[in-house]
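Exam review. A common question shows you a sequence with its structure tokens and asks you to describe the fold in words. Practice with the pair below. Do the first one on your own.
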Amino acid sequence: MNLRGKTDDCPIGLAEAMELWLGPGEHSCFNSRAELLAAWRCARGYIMRMWGSSGRRPQAWWALGDAASLGLRWPGYFRERSYLYEHNVLSPQERDTLEREWRAAFDAARGMGVRERREHLAHNDVPDELIEAWTQERRRRRGRQRAPLEEVAAAK
């Protein structure tokens, strides 16, 4: 990610901001939990603006109370986006963007075998509720396309 020009308003050091985003490395930048919490309170707006988007949340959001206050637990990186979607935590813009991305993945799976399709949709973290809705929509469209042919055949 290119941070040039975006780091000027960071209220804490960039190493500290990175730790709030990604979690601690081998050694934390913070000397105590109190220091960590103070940094989160100070820089939360900045951290969320920089890394709380596209269906993702910074590790500090998950670990320091935001997620817990909503009854959420870290689902892991590969399920994070659908988990936040399913729990209605995303902004309307994030939801729209992800739905478009997931719809493209769903459409790309057309014609795949059952196992390959399941793996493709899981890899793209497409929520089950959208898979079900789009599958039903596809079946309804197919049914409407067949209906006129069936009427012609019945008339003969």
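Now try the second one, then compare your answer with the model answer below.
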Amino acid sequence: MSRTESYLVVAASAAELAADPAVARRWSEPSALPGFTVGGLAEHLAGQVFSVAKAIAEPSSNEEQVSLLEHYARASWVRTGRDSEANVSIRDSGEGQAAEGPEAFVARLRASLADVVRTLPQVPVDHRVRPPAGPWSLGLDDFLLTRMMELAVHSDDLAASVDLPTPALPDSVNDPVLALLFSLAVGRHGSTAMLRALSRTERAPTSISAF
């Protein structure tokens, strides 16, 4: 399965979750992710569709192209804490958009996803995207993987927030997402910590979170 096809699978799954009545019922309640209401988190999740729609509607970026790991090394939200300006801005953006309410949100998400389903397969593979964290560019496949990771992680957050099961995703989504998270975690904690976390409970570190 191509990266485009895998992205569309997880995007459709996230849109279905976000449209669940349980999300609308608890829209204004705190979510499982500190600093987000359920509505704000749903908006942040949907942002991984809206950002792709925007990226593929724009000309190919002429910014410096970097690797995935270099992208995360440069992104300010990765290097700073939850209460940093970058991360507070991300949460504020989701909360502000949540004012539209669940019905308008679902309609906007479905329309955007339909547009992406129609247009993404036609985008050239050498299309380069400037990610929100810029100023630099990612190849299309790498950019889609960053969105796939966000969709998978925040689908789990949203499902936990409204007491729904985390959506099951195919290996074509899970494998690259987990490989990316593993690489980021190794960069943060070191290979020994990862080795112990995966093989030796008695010496495992307290956290191997990628972020």
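Model answer, second protein: The first strand starts at residue 128 and ends at 129. The CA atoms of residues 81 and 165 lie 28 Å apart. Full marks require stating both points clearly.
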